[in-house]
Specification:
Structural class: alpha+beta
Helix content: 40-55%
Number of strands: 21
Distance between the termini: 33 Å
Oligomer: single chain
Length: 801
């Protein structure tokens, strides 16, 4: 009996190929997107769960009363070690690391790489596997390094490189060979090897080599720059660490840290989702919400199209009832058809997963797991999905179609109740509302991003590139790098070159609390410290408002330049008044003398307001990381080749790794750009599914009113008036949807824009564009379907019975 249901269902689907294709297209679209989102969400929820003893692994996070004193993921260097030594009944193990970047070389192959300088417990504590090497002895000797497999391939072209050597440069420009003692197997993303996108370690060195890098701060209680982790003993909770942590801070740190710092242990499995103000968790919930609504829209289409096509099956239902078929059998027949459609759609969605994954990875900026990497029990999910979704989308059409009376069905009378009509129109309105909200959001996100990139940043980003350089933070090292800078500036294609520790990428070197000399130190202000040479203003084309900028031969370390925001913050009436006045850094007796004021520029994302800034001279504050090049108008490719050739002659042991300022800004606004892609993708999917829904509703309306169209034509109605008859019906639904969608879109996007210090004003244009676009497409689609009926011979229409 069941086989007969499938056989008849298959025949009906083959007979109605257009409607079958539309249903499958809508379902495949919705299910494919939902499958990709589900895979990503599940993958992200596994963050840090693959670590050894994952439920006992914690990170010590810092909560600062003054946010400028440190970052959340770093804390006091000795804290984890002292917890293990003094409270072994609470803490089973610990790991700390300090992040740095340096030039790593293998002969002529050299790159600037991220390095983790940490404890010897790295491999054992988290159960990281080595492809090659012995985990028990990998860190026994100084100048040993464990590297990731992809780094081995990058430098050697193979992964079996244990025993090979790499040359790593320190901050004084010295080079030393490090022996590779282990190659790390590929590990899932975690908060140990990659705590942030900027701290993605590929080289792991232990603290027995710390003095070479001048980073011997593992016992310094005044160094809140270490990522610190602890593994708790079985049965121990984070709350039990609160008192020991507080006692250690009170006993070993200065009053500044005691007043401003609270250290909170967070389970690593929770930290992965909750870091950065739970931005990842919010994105996962948002994506899940979007995926759910896309599937709901596809289901609505299925229901509407099934009911809309009921006119073509009404006589079939009547004949089957007259021949003894009962309602239960009809319901089973229609449910079988829906399950077959959902099965085909699900199989196609699963088959499309490998082809759609690269596109989705570009959207989210992360690599997706292969289907083969999911747990074995995931094999049962598609079958459960087919059953549940098939029943869900098939129940309503099955009960509606099987409810027709035999006599009405045999006469081909299609009667639908007022409640059913309202329900289908409500479902279509839901699709309109969703599509409008997503489209308006996409337009507003685009406008906000265009504002970021097109707004006056306070500096000229065009034809501006930056490159990281070897570091030698000595007086001789700075002089050498300034000489190199001067050599680059002589190139015909280069307008200006600047040496600095910071570039406008949001990554500030150090924060200070500064107050006006002679005033109350408790009324200090958080200030960004920047180190540059005398060419910084000319290279970035930042305006000088008052006084002068830093000079090349400056020897006084206490002469500084501030920005306009700092001038206002410190209470000066204008920029000219600030010249000659002095400032003090908290806990530093030497006053700073203001020699100049520059105009404000956006150093960070526009989510953040411009902060007070103080510029120090690189001649006296011996720290630098970048060379910034302002290129002359002309052939950019030739300019870059000229710089690269000069680079190889001046710094042969360092690779020329450059980035345009436009790309730097794109990195700064990476989340916003991904959100833009997501909204446009959701808009396209909403359009596809929404148009299929309109198609179904128009078909239903035409099937019900074929005779009416024939009578109107006989009475002299024009094609335009008949088309308007159908358009009017859907314009009412569209207008109601607009009245609902526009306020919701405004509220949602106003909330999103409130996260930015510099934001656009929400105007009428996004709403008008969204309404006109959806309205136009709706009218075109309706005309496409109704014109065929409107121009048909009325005699055929009147013979429909």
């Amino acid at each position: 009996m069941i086989w007969i249901y499938f056989k008849i269902a298959w025949r009906n689907l083959k007979k109605r190929q257009l409607y079958t294709a539309i249903n499958i297209l809508g379902l495949v679209t919705g299910i494919s997107f939902a499958l990709l989102i589900s895979a990503f969400v599940w993958q992200e929820f596994q963050g840090n769960k693959n670590l050894k003893n994952a439920n006992s692994q914690y990170i010590l996070t810092s909560q600062w009363k003054n946010p400028n004193m440190g970052v959340e993921f770093a804390t006091l260097a000795p804290l984890a070690e002292r917890l293990k030594e003094e409270y072994p009944h609470l803490v089973a193990n610990y790991y700390r690391w300090d992040g740095l970047t340096s030039i790593v070389s293998n002969g002529s192959v050299n790159f600037r790489e991220s390095i983790q300088l940490g404890d010897e417990s790295f491999l054992d504590m988290y159960g990281f596997n080595l492809l090659y090497g012995n985990a028990n002895t990998a860190f026994n000797n100084p100048f040993s390094v464990v590297i990731k497999s992809e780094k081995a391939t990058k430098f050697f072209g193979k992964t079996d490189v244990v025993g090979e050597t790499l040359t790593i440069q320190n901050f004084e420009g010295d080079n030393h060979e490090f022996i590779i003692t282990g190659v790390l197997a590929k590990t899932p993303e975690n908060s140990v090897t990659q705590i942030t996108k900027q701290n993605n370690g590929g080289f792991f060195i232990t603290k027995n080599s710390a003095t070479y890098f001048d980073r011997a701060h593992f016992q310094d209680w005044e160094a809140p720059i270490f990522a610190c982790y602890v593994e708790l003993q079985p049965g121990i909770t984070a709350q039990q660490l609160a008192d020991p942590i507080e006692r250690l801070i009170q006993n070993h740190t200065s009053e500044v840290f005691q007043k401003n710092l609270t250290v909170v242990p967070q389970k690593l499995t929770d930290y992965y989702l909750n870091k950065d103000h739970a931005s990842l968790k919010q994105m996962l919930y948002t994506l899940s919400f979007v995926g759910f609504f896309i599937v709901i829209m596809a289901m609505i289409n299925f229901i509407n199209i099934a009911i809309s096509h009921s006119g073509s099956r009404i006589k079939e239902i009547g004949v089957r009832k007259v021949l003894g078929g009962n309602r239960k059998q009809l319901i089973l027949q229609f449910l079988t058809e829906s399950i077959i459609l959902v099965s085909i759609s699900t199989v196609l969605a699963c088959l499309s997963y490998p082809f759609l994954s690269p596109w989705f990875e570009g959207l989210i900026g992360k690599e997706l797991m292969n289907l083969s990497q999911f747990p074995i029990y995931f094999l049962f999910i598609p079958f459960l999905f087919i059953l549940v979704l098939g029943l869900f989308v098939g129940l309503y059409p099955a009960f509606v179609l099987s409810s027709f009376k035999s006599i009405d069905a045999l006469q081909g009378k299609l009667k639908t109740g007022t409640k059913a009509v309202y329900l289908r129109k409500s479902l279509l309105s839901f699709q309109y509302v969703t599509a409008l909200i997503v489209l308006i959001s996409a337009i507003l996100v685009t406008q906000q991003l265009n504002s970021f990139f097109g707004k006056n940043l306070g500096y000229d980003k065009d034809s501006l590139i930056t490159a990281t350089i070897p570091r030698d933070w000595t007086q001789e090292g700075v002089k050498k790098m300034l000489t190199i800078r001067n050599e680059f500036s002589k190139l015909p294609s280069v307008e200006n070159v600047s040496l600095s520790y910071e570039i406008p990428n949001g990554n500030n070197g150090f924060q200070m609390s500064i107050y006006k000399t002679g005033e109350n130190p408790e009324q200090s202000y958080a200030t960004q410290g920047l180190v540059s040479d005398d060419a910084y203003l000319e290279t970035y084309q930042i305006s000088l408002v008052a006084g002068r900028f830093l000079e090349s031969e400056e020897t006084n370390p206490d002469l500084v330049v501030i920005n306009e925001k700092a001038s206002d913050t410190y209470g000066f009436k204008n920029a000219e008044e600030a010249i000659g006045h002095q400032l003090n850094i908290i806990d530093d007796e030497n006053p700073l003398t203001i020699i100049g004021v520059i105009s404000d520029f956006h150093f960070e994302s526009m989510q953040q307001p411009i902060k007070p800034q103080v510029f120090f001279n690189v001649n006296t504050n011996l720290h630098y990381r970048y060379l910034s090049f302002k290129l002359k108008a002309g052939n950019i490719k030739e300019s870059l080749m000229a710089i690269q050739q000069k680079w190889q002659s001046l710094m042969p042991d360092s690779s020329f790794e450059y980035q345009f300022m436009d790309d730097t800004l794109a990195t700064l606004y990476e989340n916003e750009l991904q959100f833009k892609k997501a909204t446009y993708t959701a808009s396209i999917l909403s359009f596809i599914i929404g148009l299929l829904g309109i198609f179904g509703m128009v078909s239903l309306s035409i099937n019900k009113r074929i005779k009416e169209v024939g009578i109107r034509k006989v009475l002299g109605a024009s094609v335009a008036s008949i088309s308007y008859l159908f358009i009017k019906e859907f314009l009412v639904i569209l207008v109601l949807s607009i009245l609902i969608a526009c306020p919701l879109a405004y509220l949602l996007m106003n909330q999103w824009l409130s996260n930015y210090a510099y934001r656009i004003t929400i105007g009428l244009n996004p709403f008008l564009i969204g309404i006109l676009l959806i309205g136009s497409i709706t009218i075109i689609l309706i005309l496409f379907q109704t014109l065929k009926t409107a121009i048909a011979n009325p005699v055929k229409s009147l013979k429909t019975e």
